[in-house]
Design goal:
Blueprint (H helix, E strand, L loop, with lengths): L28 H6 L3 H14 L3 E2 L9 H8 L10 H9 L6 E5 L4 E6 L4 E3 L5 H18 L3 H4 L7 H7 L17 E3 L4 E3 L1 H9 L10 E3 L16 E3 L4 E3 L1 H7 L10 E3 L24 E3 L5 E2 L1 H7 L10 E3 L16 E3 L4 E3 L1 H7 L10 E3 L3 H7 L2 H75 L4 H38 L9 H10 L32 H4 L19 H13 L3
Helix pairs in contact: 3-4, 5-13
Length: 582
Amino acid sequence: ALVFFFPAQTSARGAEVPMEDTKRPIFGAEAERIGTRLDEATDEFLKETKSCRALQIPPGQDQLTAMEFVAYLGINLQLEPELSWVAREMLACPMPPQAEMKVSKAGVCYFHDLINDYYTIEHPLTQRYLKVLERQRLDLLCLRTKPSVNGLLFSQPDMLFNKQFRNLQIPCQSCGVMQSTLKCNQCLMSFCQSCADALHKNALGPRKNHTFLTTACGSLCSTCAVKKPQVFCANCEDYFCFKCFEDMHRRGNRLQHKSMLVSVSDGDVIEPQKRCEECEDRPAAFACDYCLDNYCVQCFWKCHFNGHRWQHTASKVGVVPMCNQCQNVRATIFSEQTQELMCTECFTMLHAKGNRMLHLFMDAMDLLVLLERLDPAFQEHMRRARPRVLWALSQLQGWVKGIEARRNFKKRKDVVLMIQRRWRGVLTRRRLLGMLHMHKWRRRQVNNYFLPKTAAERRAVKQKTTAMLSAKDVTTRAANQSLRELRSTILSTATADPLEDAQMTRDQMDALPGAIDIPGAGSTGGFGSLPAGVSPYTSYEQSSRFNGGLANPGNVQTAQDLSKKDIRSTRDNTLRQITRLD
Protein backbone atom coordinates (compact mmCIF):
# COMPACT_ATOMS: atom_id res chain seq x y z
CA ALA A 1 0.00 0.00 0.00
CA LEU A 2 1.25 3.47 -0.85
CA VAL A 3 1.35 6.00 1.97
CA PHE A 4 1.97 9.64 1.12
CA PHE A 5 3.23 12.31 3.48
CA PHE A 6 2.07 15.86 2.91
CA PRO A 7 4.28 18.34 4.74
CA ALA A 8 2.24 21.44 3.78
CA GLN A 9 0.39 23.03 6.68
CA THR A 10 -2.51 24.28 4.56
CA SER A 11 -4.85 22.09 2.55
CA ALA A 12 -5.90 22.60 -1.05
CA ARG A 13 -9.11 24.27 0.18
CA GLY A 14 -7.21 26.68 2.38
CA ALA A 15 -8.11 25.07 5.71
CA GLU A 16 -5.56 25.12 8.49
CA VAL A 17 -4.05 21.74 9.32
CA PRO A 18 -2.44 21.26 12.75
CA MET A 19 1.30 20.62 12.86
CA GLU A 20 0.87 17.25 14.54
CA ASP A 21 -1.39 16.11 11.69
CA THR A 22 1.33 16.76 9.12
CA LYS A 23 3.72 14.35 10.81
CA ARG A 24 1.57 11.27 10.33
CA PRO A 25 0.25 9.66 7.12
CA ILE A 26 -3.01 11.02 5.78
CA PHE A 27 -5.40 8.76 3.93
CA GLY A 28 -9.06 7.72 3.62
CA ALA A 29 -11.91 10.00 4.64
CA GLU A 30 -9.59 12.33 6.52
CA ALA A 31 -7.58 12.93 3.36
CA GLU A 32 -10.78 13.83 1.52
CA ARG A 33 -11.85 16.08 4.36
CA ILE A 34 -8.68 18.18 4.38
CA GLY A 35 -8.55 18.30 0.60
CA THR A 36 -5.50 16.19 -0.26
CA ARG A 37 -5.73 14.43 -3.62
CA LEU A 38 -4.61 11.00 -2.47
CA ASP A 39 -6.33 9.01 -5.21
CA GLU A 40 -4.98 11.27 -7.95
CA ALA A 41 -1.47 11.13 -6.46
CA THR A 42 -1.59 7.34 -6.29
CA ASP A 43 -2.76 7.16 -9.90
CA GLU A 44 0.01 9.52 -10.99
CA PHE A 45 2.60 7.41 -9.14
CA LEU A 46 1.38 4.20 -10.80
CA LYS A 47 1.42 5.81 -14.24
CA GLU A 48 4.93 7.12 -13.63
CA THR A 49 6.09 3.68 -12.46
CA LYS A 50 4.76 2.03 -15.63
CA SER A 51 6.36 4.52 -18.03
CA CYS A 52 9.71 4.95 -16.26
CA ARG A 53 12.74 2.69 -16.43
CA ALA A 54 14.27 1.60 -13.15
CA LEU A 55 17.90 1.52 -12.13
CA GLN A 56 18.88 -1.80 -10.57
CA ILE A 57 22.25 -3.04 -9.39
CA PRO A 58 22.93 -6.36 -11.18
CA PRO A 59 23.60 -9.47 -9.08
CA GLY A 60 27.23 -9.83 -8.09
CA GLN A 61 27.90 -6.07 -8.09
CA ASP A 62 27.86 -3.63 -5.21
CA GLN A 63 27.21 -0.43 -7.18
CA LEU A 64 25.88 0.85 -10.48
CA THR A 65 28.00 0.90 -13.64
CA ALA A 66 27.79 2.90 -16.86
CA MET A 67 25.99 0.00 -18.59
CA GLU A 68 22.95 0.41 -16.32
CA PHE A 69 22.70 4.10 -17.26
CA VAL A 70 23.12 3.23 -20.94
CA ALA A 71 20.03 1.03 -20.67
CA TYR A 72 18.25 3.62 -18.48
CA LEU A 73 18.72 6.41 -21.04
CA GLY A 74 17.99 4.13 -24.01
CA ILE A 75 21.37 4.52 -25.75
CA ASN A 76 22.16 1.98 -28.46
CA LEU A 77 25.91 1.41 -28.29
CA GLN A 78 25.94 -0.34 -31.67
CA LEU A 79 24.38 2.64 -33.48
CA GLU A 80 25.53 5.61 -31.40
CA PRO A 81 28.67 4.70 -29.41
CA GLU A 82 29.74 8.37 -29.45
CA LEU A 83 27.01 9.15 -26.89
CA SER A 84 28.23 6.75 -24.21
CA TRP A 85 29.82 9.68 -22.37
CA VAL A 86 26.31 10.88 -21.38
CA ALA A 87 25.76 7.65 -19.44
CA ARG A 88 29.18 8.04 -17.77
CA GLU A 89 28.36 11.59 -16.71
CA MET A 90 25.02 10.54 -15.26
CA LEU A 91 26.79 7.76 -13.38
CA ALA A 92 29.32 10.22 -11.92
CA CYS A 93 26.91 13.01 -11.03
CA PRO A 94 26.09 13.35 -7.32
CA MET A 95 22.58 13.66 -5.98
CA PRO A 96 21.14 17.21 -5.94
CA PRO A 97 20.94 18.85 -2.50
CA GLN A 98 17.21 18.18 -2.22
CA ALA A 99 17.34 14.43 -3.05
CA GLU A 100 19.00 11.25 -1.88
CA MET A 101 19.30 7.78 -3.37
CA LYS A 102 18.28 4.60 -1.58
CA VAL A 103 18.72 0.96 -2.61
CA SER A 104 16.21 -1.79 -1.85
CA LYS A 105 17.09 -5.33 -0.89
CA ALA A 106 16.50 -6.41 -4.50
CA GLY A 107 19.03 -3.84 -5.74
CA VAL A 108 16.42 -1.43 -7.17
CA CYS A 109 17.43 2.22 -6.75
CA TYR A 110 14.74 4.67 -5.71
CA PHE A 111 15.02 8.34 -4.80
CA HIS A 112 13.65 10.43 -1.96
CA ASP A 113 12.66 14.05 -2.52
CA LEU A 114 13.59 15.66 0.81
CA ILE A 115 11.58 18.83 0.23
CA ASN A 116 8.25 17.26 -0.79
CA ASP A 117 8.85 13.98 1.09
CA TYR A 118 8.15 12.03 -2.08
CA TYR A 119 9.57 8.69 -3.28
CA THR A 120 10.07 7.79 -6.92
CA ILE A 121 12.09 5.39 -9.04
CA GLU A 122 12.99 8.09 -11.58
CA HIS A 123 16.41 9.68 -11.20
CA PRO A 124 16.09 13.38 -10.23
CA LEU A 125 18.32 14.42 -13.16
CA THR A 126 16.70 12.18 -15.77
CA GLN A 127 15.06 15.02 -17.70
CA ARG A 128 18.31 17.01 -17.86
CA TYR A 129 20.33 14.14 -19.28
CA LEU A 130 17.56 13.15 -21.69
CA LYS A 131 17.55 16.70 -22.97
CA VAL A 132 21.35 16.63 -23.33
CA LEU A 133 21.09 13.26 -25.09
CA GLU A 134 18.50 14.62 -27.51
CA ARG A 135 20.66 17.66 -28.27
CA GLN A 136 23.80 15.56 -28.75
CA ARG A 137 21.99 13.20 -31.12
CA LEU A 138 21.09 16.19 -33.26
CA ASP A 139 24.64 17.56 -33.09
CA LEU A 140 26.01 14.14 -33.97
CA LEU A 141 24.02 14.15 -37.20
CA CYS A 142 25.25 17.65 -37.90
CA LEU A 143 28.84 16.56 -37.25
CA ARG A 144 28.48 13.92 -39.95
CA THR A 145 28.20 16.72 -42.50
CA LYS A 146 31.69 18.00 -41.57
CA PRO A 147 34.27 15.37 -42.63
CA SER A 148 37.18 17.06 -40.85
CA VAL A 149 35.42 16.81 -37.49
CA ASN A 150 33.70 13.51 -38.20
CA GLY A 151 37.10 11.89 -38.62
CA LEU A 152 38.02 12.81 -35.04
CA LEU A 153 35.08 10.90 -33.50
CA PHE A 154 35.80 7.46 -32.10
CA SER A 155 32.87 5.55 -33.58
CA GLN A 156 33.53 2.23 -31.82
CA PRO A 157 31.66 0.91 -28.78
CA ASP A 158 34.56 1.19 -26.32
CA MET A 159 32.28 0.30 -23.42
CA LEU A 160 31.55 -3.08 -24.94
CA PHE A 161 35.26 -3.63 -25.63
CA ASN A 162 36.23 -2.83 -22.05
CA LYS A 163 33.46 -5.06 -20.72
CA GLN A 164 34.13 -8.00 -23.01
CA PHE A 165 37.94 -7.84 -23.21
CA ARG A 166 38.97 -7.02 -19.68
CA ASN A 167 42.67 -7.66 -20.44
CA LEU A 168 42.81 -5.40 -23.49
CA GLN A 169 45.87 -3.14 -23.35
CA ILE A 170 45.07 0.28 -24.84
CA PRO A 171 46.41 3.82 -24.32
CA CYS A 172 44.84 6.04 -21.68
CA GLN A 173 41.40 7.16 -22.81
CA SER A 174 41.80 10.49 -21.03
CA CYS A 175 45.17 11.88 -22.15
CA GLY A 176 45.86 9.53 -25.05
CA VAL A 177 49.61 9.68 -24.41
CA MET A 178 50.44 7.17 -21.69
CA GLN A 179 49.71 3.50 -21.69
CA SER A 180 46.71 2.60 -19.50
CA THR A 181 47.64 1.01 -16.20
CA LEU A 182 44.22 0.95 -14.52
CA LYS A 183 40.75 0.04 -15.70
CA CYS A 184 37.69 1.44 -13.90
CA ASN A 185 35.04 -1.21 -13.33
CA GLN A 186 32.24 1.37 -13.19
CA CYS A 187 33.27 3.90 -15.86
CA LEU A 188 34.39 1.05 -18.15
CA MET A 189 37.40 3.13 -19.23
CA SER A 190 41.16 2.66 -19.12
CA PHE A 191 43.38 5.31 -17.52
CA CYS A 192 46.97 5.95 -16.73
CA GLN A 193 47.76 6.51 -13.07
CA SER A 194 47.82 10.30 -13.24
CA CYS A 195 44.53 10.57 -15.17
CA ALA A 196 42.85 8.11 -12.81
CA ASP A 197 43.96 10.18 -9.82
CA ALA A 198 42.89 13.43 -11.44
CA LEU A 199 39.42 12.05 -12.16
CA HIS A 200 38.71 9.84 -9.13
CA LYS A 201 41.00 10.71 -6.24
CA ASN A 202 39.54 14.09 -5.28
CA ALA A 203 36.03 13.49 -6.60
CA LEU A 204 33.10 14.20 -4.28
CA GLY A 205 30.49 12.13 -6.09
CA PRO A 206 30.15 8.42 -6.82
CA ARG A 207 33.53 8.36 -8.59
CA LYS A 208 35.37 8.28 -5.28
CA ASN A 209 33.96 4.77 -4.63
CA HIS A 210 34.89 3.32 -8.02
CA THR A 211 37.05 0.20 -8.12
CA PHE A 212 39.95 -0.53 -10.47
CA LEU A 213 41.75 -3.40 -12.15
CA THR A 214 45.40 -3.24 -13.14
CA THR A 215 46.17 -3.77 -16.80
CA ALA A 216 49.14 -5.64 -18.15
CA CYS A 217 51.19 -2.45 -18.34
CA GLY A 218 50.34 -1.45 -14.79
CA SER A 219 51.08 -4.76 -13.14
CA LEU A 220 54.10 -6.96 -12.53
CA CYS A 221 54.63 -10.70 -12.66
CA SER A 222 52.48 -12.21 -9.96
CA THR A 223 55.22 -14.63 -8.90
CA CYS A 224 58.50 -12.76 -8.94
CA ALA A 225 57.04 -9.20 -8.79
CA VAL A 226 60.12 -7.95 -10.64
CA LYS A 227 59.55 -8.23 -14.36
CA LYS A 228 56.74 -6.88 -16.48
CA PRO A 229 54.10 -9.47 -17.42
CA GLN A 230 54.61 -11.31 -20.68
CA VAL A 231 51.91 -14.04 -20.43
CA PHE A 232 48.34 -13.91 -19.16
CA CYS A 233 46.84 -17.19 -17.91
CA ALA A 234 43.08 -17.32 -18.46
CA ASN A 235 42.53 -20.08 -15.89
CA CYS A 236 44.66 -18.54 -13.16
CA GLU A 237 43.48 -15.02 -14.17
CA ASP A 238 46.93 -13.65 -13.45
CA TYR A 239 50.02 -12.27 -15.21
CA PHE A 240 53.39 -14.04 -15.42
CA CYS A 241 56.75 -13.54 -17.02
CA PHE A 242 58.00 -16.30 -19.29
CA LYS A 243 60.20 -17.95 -16.68
CA CYS A 244 57.60 -17.94 -13.89
CA PHE A 245 54.87 -19.13 -16.23
CA GLU A 246 57.02 -22.07 -17.31
CA ASP A 247 57.88 -22.97 -13.72
CA MET A 248 54.25 -22.76 -12.52
CA HIS A 249 52.69 -24.63 -15.47
CA ARG A 250 55.21 -27.42 -15.96
CA ARG A 251 53.21 -30.33 -14.53
CA GLY A 252 49.77 -31.39 -13.26
CA ASN A 253 46.47 -29.92 -14.38
CA ARG A 254 48.10 -26.56 -15.07
CA LEU A 255 49.47 -28.01 -18.29
CA GLN A 256 45.94 -27.63 -19.71
CA HIS A 257 45.63 -23.93 -18.79
CA LYS A 258 44.98 -21.52 -21.63
CA SER A 259 47.26 -18.51 -21.94
CA MET A 260 47.93 -15.55 -24.22
CA LEU A 261 50.96 -13.35 -24.87
CA VAL A 262 50.97 -9.80 -23.56
CA SER A 263 52.67 -7.23 -25.80
CA VAL A 264 54.42 -5.48 -22.92
CA SER A 265 58.10 -5.81 -22.16
CA ASP A 266 60.61 -4.04 -19.98
CA GLY A 267 62.07 -2.15 -22.92
CA ASP A 268 59.03 -0.50 -24.52
CA VAL A 269 56.92 0.31 -21.47
CA ILE A 270 56.23 3.99 -21.06
CA GLU A 271 56.32 5.13 -17.49
CA PRO A 272 52.73 5.13 -16.30
CA GLN A 273 53.16 8.31 -14.31
CA LYS A 274 55.64 11.02 -15.19
CA ARG A 275 56.52 13.65 -12.60
CA CYS A 276 58.24 16.96 -13.00
CA GLU A 277 61.99 16.39 -12.62
CA GLU A 278 62.47 19.87 -11.16
CA CYS A 279 59.95 19.99 -8.34
CA GLU A 280 59.30 16.23 -8.27
CA ASP A 281 55.75 16.90 -7.09
CA ARG A 282 53.41 17.91 -9.88
CA PRO A 283 52.76 15.71 -12.96
CA ALA A 284 54.83 16.57 -16.02
CA ALA A 285 53.17 18.59 -18.77
CA PHE A 286 56.12 19.22 -21.15
CA ALA A 287 59.22 17.35 -22.26
CA CYS A 288 62.10 19.60 -23.34
CA ASP A 289 63.54 18.45 -26.65
CA TYR A 290 67.02 19.78 -25.75
CA CYS A 291 67.22 19.16 -22.00
CA LEU A 292 65.48 15.76 -22.39
CA ASP A 293 63.78 16.37 -19.06
CA ASN A 294 60.12 16.45 -18.05
CA TYR A 295 58.69 19.62 -16.51
CA CYS A 296 55.38 20.85 -15.19
CA VAL A 297 54.12 24.17 -16.55
CA GLN A 298 55.49 26.34 -13.73
CA CYS A 299 58.92 24.71 -13.63
CA PHE A 300 59.28 24.73 -17.41
CA TRP A 301 58.89 28.51 -17.58
CA LYS A 302 61.07 29.01 -14.51
CA CYS A 303 63.90 27.05 -16.08
CA HIS A 304 63.46 28.39 -19.62
CA PHE A 305 62.70 32.03 -18.88
CA ASN A 306 66.08 33.51 -20.00
CA GLY A 307 69.42 32.59 -21.46
CA HIS A 308 69.92 30.05 -24.20
CA ARG A 309 67.14 27.86 -22.73
CA TRP A 310 64.65 30.46 -23.92
CA GLN A 311 65.13 29.03 -27.42
CA HIS A 312 64.43 25.42 -26.39
CA THR A 313 61.38 23.69 -27.82
CA ALA A 314 59.10 21.40 -25.86
CA SER A 315 56.64 18.58 -26.56
CA LYS A 316 53.41 18.12 -24.68
CA VAL A 317 53.33 15.15 -22.39
CA GLY A 318 49.64 15.29 -21.56
CA VAL A 319 46.94 17.92 -21.48
CA VAL A 320 44.45 17.29 -18.69
CA PRO A 321 42.21 20.33 -18.10
CA MET A 322 41.06 20.85 -14.54
CA CYS A 323 37.72 22.15 -13.31
CA ASN A 324 37.41 25.95 -13.27
CA GLN A 325 35.53 25.85 -9.96
CA CYS A 326 37.32 23.42 -7.65
CA GLN A 327 40.67 23.12 -9.49
CA ASN A 328 41.02 19.60 -8.02
CA VAL A 329 39.17 17.31 -10.42
CA ARG A 330 39.64 16.82 -14.13
CA ALA A 331 37.07 18.75 -16.17
CA THR A 332 34.74 16.35 -18.00
CA ILE A 333 32.02 18.66 -19.39
CA PHE A 334 31.86 22.07 -21.05
CA SER A 335 28.91 24.27 -20.17
CA GLU A 336 27.40 25.79 -23.32
CA GLN A 337 25.81 28.74 -21.52
CA THR A 338 28.62 29.77 -19.17
CA GLN A 339 31.38 28.70 -21.59
CA GLU A 340 33.63 27.07 -18.96
CA LEU A 341 35.11 23.68 -18.20
CA MET A 342 33.69 22.00 -15.13
CA CYS A 343 33.71 18.67 -13.38
CA THR A 344 30.48 16.73 -12.95
CA GLU A 345 30.17 17.45 -9.22
CA CYS A 346 30.54 21.22 -9.55
CA PHE A 347 28.17 21.42 -12.51
CA THR A 348 25.49 19.47 -10.63
CA MET A 349 25.72 21.59 -7.50
CA LEU A 350 25.82 24.93 -9.33
CA HIS A 351 22.90 24.00 -11.58
CA ALA A 352 20.60 22.48 -8.96
CA LYS A 353 17.93 25.21 -9.01
CA GLY A 354 16.75 28.25 -10.90
CA ASN A 355 17.22 28.87 -14.59
CA ARG A 356 20.58 27.09 -14.45
CA MET A 357 18.71 23.79 -14.37
CA LEU A 358 18.06 24.37 -18.10
CA HIS A 359 21.74 24.75 -19.00
CA LEU A 360 23.22 22.17 -21.37
CA PHE A 361 26.76 20.86 -21.70
CA MET A 362 29.11 19.03 -24.04
CA ASP A 363 31.73 16.34 -23.58
CA ALA A 364 35.17 17.59 -22.53
CA MET A 365 36.99 14.26 -22.31
CA ASP A 366 37.96 14.41 -26.00
CA LEU A 367 39.82 17.72 -26.25
CA LEU A 368 40.38 17.61 -30.01
CA VAL A 369 36.67 17.35 -30.78
CA LEU A 370 35.90 20.01 -28.17
CA LEU A 371 38.39 22.45 -29.70
CA GLU A 372 36.92 21.87 -33.15
CA ARG A 373 33.40 22.43 -31.85
CA LEU A 374 34.44 25.73 -30.24
CA ASP A 375 35.76 27.03 -33.54
CA PRO A 376 33.53 30.00 -34.65
CA ALA A 377 33.45 28.75 -38.25
CA PHE A 378 32.27 25.33 -37.13
CA GLN A 379 29.66 26.87 -34.80
CA GLU A 380 28.27 28.80 -37.76
CA HIS A 381 28.15 25.55 -39.73
CA MET A 382 26.25 23.88 -36.88
CA ARG A 383 23.81 26.80 -36.65
CA ARG A 384 22.90 26.36 -40.30
CA ALA A 385 22.91 22.56 -40.27
CA ARG A 386 20.58 22.04 -37.28
CA PRO A 387 17.35 23.31 -38.98
CA ARG A 388 18.08 21.25 -42.09
CA VAL A 389 18.68 18.11 -40.07
CA LEU A 390 15.49 18.69 -38.08
CA TRP A 391 13.51 19.14 -41.32
CA ALA A 392 14.99 15.92 -42.73
CA LEU A 393 14.17 14.09 -39.51
CA SER A 394 10.55 15.29 -39.52
CA GLN A 395 10.14 14.21 -43.15
CA LEU A 396 11.67 10.82 -42.43
CA GLN A 397 9.54 10.31 -39.33
CA GLY A 398 6.34 11.10 -41.23
CA TRP A 399 7.28 8.70 -43.99
CA VAL A 400 8.19 5.93 -41.56
CA LYS A 401 4.98 6.45 -39.56
CA GLY A 402 2.97 6.11 -42.77
CA ILE A 403 4.72 2.84 -43.57
CA GLU A 404 4.11 1.50 -40.09
CA ALA A 405 0.47 2.58 -40.17
CA ARG A 406 -0.14 0.83 -43.48
CA ARG A 407 1.77 -2.22 -42.32
CA ASN A 408 -0.15 -2.53 -39.08
CA PHE A 409 -3.60 -1.74 -40.54
CA LYS A 410 -4.37 -5.38 -41.38
CA LYS A 411 -3.09 -6.53 -37.98
CA ARG A 412 -5.28 -4.02 -36.17
CA LYS A 413 -8.25 -4.97 -38.32
CA ASP A 414 -7.74 -8.66 -37.54
CA VAL A 415 -7.46 -7.88 -33.85
CA VAL A 416 -10.70 -5.85 -33.92
CA LEU A 417 -12.55 -8.59 -35.77
CA MET A 418 -11.23 -11.20 -33.35
CA ILE A 419 -12.43 -9.10 -30.40
CA GLN A 420 -15.84 -8.69 -32.02
CA ARG A 421 -16.12 -12.43 -32.70
CA ARG A 422 -15.15 -13.27 -29.16
CA TRP A 423 -17.63 -10.77 -27.78
CA ARG A 424 -20.45 -12.18 -29.91
CA GLY A 425 -19.45 -15.67 -28.81
CA VAL A 426 -19.58 -14.60 -25.17
CA LEU A 427 -23.05 -13.11 -25.64
CA THR A 428 -24.28 -16.23 -27.44
CA ARG A 429 -22.91 -18.50 -24.74
CA ARG A 430 -24.57 -16.38 -22.09
CA ARG A 431 -27.89 -16.58 -23.94
CA LEU A 432 -27.65 -20.36 -24.40
CA LEU A 433 -26.66 -20.85 -20.78
CA GLY A 434 -29.62 -18.73 -19.74
CA MET A 435 -31.96 -20.86 -21.86
CA LEU A 436 -30.42 -24.04 -20.43
CA HIS A 437 -30.82 -22.77 -16.89
CA MET A 438 -34.43 -21.83 -17.62
CA HIS A 439 -35.09 -25.30 -19.06
CA LYS A 440 -33.54 -26.96 -16.04
CA TRP A 441 -35.45 -24.69 -13.70
CA ARG A 442 -38.76 -25.39 -15.51
CA ARG A 443 -38.19 -29.13 -15.52
CA ARG A 444 -37.34 -29.01 -11.85
CA GLN A 445 -40.50 -27.03 -11.16
CA VAL A 446 -42.64 -29.53 -13.13
CA ASN A 447 -41.07 -32.50 -11.37
CA ASN A 448 -41.53 -30.91 -8.00
CA TYR A 449 -45.18 -30.19 -8.84
CA PHE A 450 -46.15 -33.68 -9.99
CA LEU A 451 -43.95 -35.83 -7.78
CA PRO A 452 -45.15 -36.68 -4.29
CA LYS A 453 -43.89 -34.42 -1.58
CA THR A 454 -44.08 -36.36 1.68
CA ALA A 455 -42.67 -39.78 2.62
CA ALA A 456 -46.19 -41.26 3.06
CA GLU A 457 -47.22 -40.16 -0.43
CA ARG A 458 -44.03 -41.58 -1.92
CA ARG A 459 -44.62 -44.88 -0.05
CA ALA A 460 -48.21 -45.08 -1.35
CA VAL A 461 -47.11 -44.42 -4.92
CA LYS A 462 -44.42 -47.08 -4.59
CA GLN A 463 -46.93 -49.64 -3.36
CA LYS A 464 -49.30 -48.76 -6.17
CA THR A 465 -46.54 -49.16 -8.74
CA THR A 466 -45.53 -52.49 -7.24
CA ALA A 467 -49.14 -53.73 -7.48
CA MET A 468 -49.37 -52.63 -11.11
CA LEU A 469 -46.14 -54.39 -12.01
CA SER A 470 -47.29 -57.55 -10.16
CA ALA A 471 -50.60 -57.58 -12.06
CA LYS A 472 -48.72 -57.12 -15.29
CA ASP A 473 -46.46 -60.05 -14.40
CA VAL A 474 -49.45 -62.27 -13.66
CA THR A 475 -51.07 -61.31 -16.96
CA THR A 476 -47.83 -62.05 -18.78
CA ARG A 477 -47.57 -65.49 -17.18
CA ALA A 478 -51.21 -66.28 -18.08
CA ALA A 479 -50.63 -65.23 -21.68
CA ASN A 480 -47.51 -67.39 -21.86
CA GLN A 481 -49.44 -70.40 -20.47
CA SER A 482 -52.20 -69.88 -23.05
CA LEU A 483 -49.61 -69.81 -25.82
CA ARG A 484 -48.11 -73.07 -24.57
CA GLU A 485 -51.52 -74.75 -24.48
CA LEU A 486 -52.33 -73.50 -28.00
CA ARG A 487 -49.02 -74.83 -29.30
CA SER A 488 -49.54 -78.23 -27.71
CA THR A 489 -53.11 -78.37 -29.15
CA ILE A 490 -51.87 -77.57 -32.66
CA LEU A 491 -49.18 -80.18 -32.45
CA SER A 492 -51.51 -82.84 -31.04
CA THR A 493 -54.18 -82.24 -33.73
CA ALA A 494 -51.72 -82.08 -36.61
CA THR A 495 -52.22 -85.77 -37.36
CA ALA A 496 -56.03 -85.51 -37.48
CA ASP A 497 -56.05 -84.00 -40.94
CA PRO A 498 -54.63 -86.37 -43.56
CA LEU A 499 -53.75 -83.44 -45.78
CA GLU A 500 -51.46 -81.88 -43.11
CA ASP A 501 -47.91 -83.01 -42.58
CA ALA A 502 -47.35 -83.31 -38.82
CA GLN A 503 -43.53 -83.11 -39.01
CA MET A 504 -43.64 -80.04 -41.21
CA THR A 505 -46.08 -78.37 -38.81
CA ARG A 506 -43.80 -79.16 -35.85
CA ASP A 507 -40.78 -77.72 -37.68
CA GLN A 508 -42.67 -74.61 -38.58
CA MET A 509 -43.88 -74.16 -35.00
CA ASP A 510 -40.33 -74.60 -33.69
CA ALA A 511 -38.97 -72.10 -36.20
CA LEU A 512 -41.43 -69.38 -35.12
CA PRO A 513 -40.02 -66.89 -32.54
CA GLY A 514 -41.85 -67.18 -29.23
CA ALA A 515 -42.79 -70.75 -29.86
CA ILE A 516 -40.12 -71.97 -27.44
CA ASP A 517 -41.10 -71.93 -23.82
CA ILE A 518 -39.30 -69.10 -21.95
CA PRO A 519 -39.52 -69.15 -18.18
CA GLY A 520 -40.63 -66.00 -16.40
CA ALA A 521 -37.98 -66.18 -13.69
CA GLY A 522 -34.86 -64.04 -13.62
CA SER A 523 -36.54 -60.65 -13.98
CA THR A 524 -35.36 -57.55 -12.17
CA GLY A 525 -37.17 -56.68 -8.99
CA GLY A 526 -38.89 -60.06 -8.68
CA PHE A 527 -41.24 -59.51 -11.62
CA GLY A 528 -41.52 -61.74 -14.70
CA SER A 529 -40.17 -60.34 -17.98
CA LEU A 530 -42.02 -60.39 -21.26
CA PRO A 531 -41.16 -63.23 -23.66
CA ALA A 532 -38.85 -62.59 -26.55
CA GLY A 533 -41.50 -63.80 -29.00
CA VAL A 534 -44.81 -62.32 -30.08
CA SER A 535 -46.25 -60.01 -27.43
CA PRO A 536 -49.83 -60.83 -26.37
CA TYR A 537 -50.58 -57.11 -26.29
CA THR A 538 -49.77 -56.52 -29.95
CA SER A 539 -52.74 -55.53 -32.09
CA TYR A 540 -53.83 -57.49 -35.11
CA GLU A 541 -52.41 -54.94 -37.57
CA GLN A 542 -49.08 -54.83 -35.74
CA SER A 543 -48.84 -58.58 -35.25
CA SER A 544 -46.44 -60.49 -37.47
CA ARG A 545 -48.14 -63.78 -36.83
CA PHE A 546 -50.61 -63.25 -39.66
CA ASN A 547 -48.87 -60.70 -41.98
CA GLY A 548 -45.30 -62.06 -41.84
CA GLY A 549 -43.70 -58.74 -40.78
CA LEU A 550 -41.87 -60.02 -37.71
CA ALA A 551 -38.22 -59.05 -37.70
CA ASN A 552 -35.61 -61.69 -37.21
CA PRO A 553 -32.83 -60.16 -35.10
CA GLY A 554 -30.49 -63.08 -35.65
CA ASN A 555 -30.68 -62.86 -39.49
CA VAL A 556 -32.01 -66.47 -39.59
CA GLN A 557 -34.20 -67.60 -42.47
CA THR A 558 -37.70 -68.29 -41.04
CA ALA A 559 -40.06 -71.01 -42.33
CA GLN A 560 -43.01 -70.28 -44.58
CA ASP A 561 -46.05 -68.85 -42.81
CA LEU A 562 -48.91 -71.45 -42.65
CA SER A 563 -51.55 -68.75 -42.83
CA LYS A 564 -50.46 -67.85 -46.35
CA LYS A 565 -50.19 -71.43 -47.63
CA ASP A 566 -52.71 -72.45 -50.39
CA ILE A 567 -54.33 -75.65 -49.13
CA ARG A 568 -56.00 -76.38 -52.46
CA SER A 569 -52.73 -76.45 -54.36
CA THR A 570 -51.31 -78.70 -51.71
CA ARG A 571 -54.28 -81.05 -51.96
CA ASP A 572 -54.01 -81.17 -55.74
CA ASN A 573 -50.33 -81.88 -55.55
CA THR A 574 -51.01 -84.58 -53.04
CA LEU A 575 -53.71 -86.23 -55.24
CA ARG A 576 -51.38 -86.18 -58.24
CA GLN A 577 -48.75 -87.76 -56.13
CA ILE A 578 -51.17 -90.35 -54.75
CA THR A 579 -52.62 -91.30 -58.17
CA ARG A 580 -49.15 -91.01 -59.73
CA LEU A 581 -50.51 -89.10 -62.65
CA ASP A 582 -47.28 -87.14 -62.90
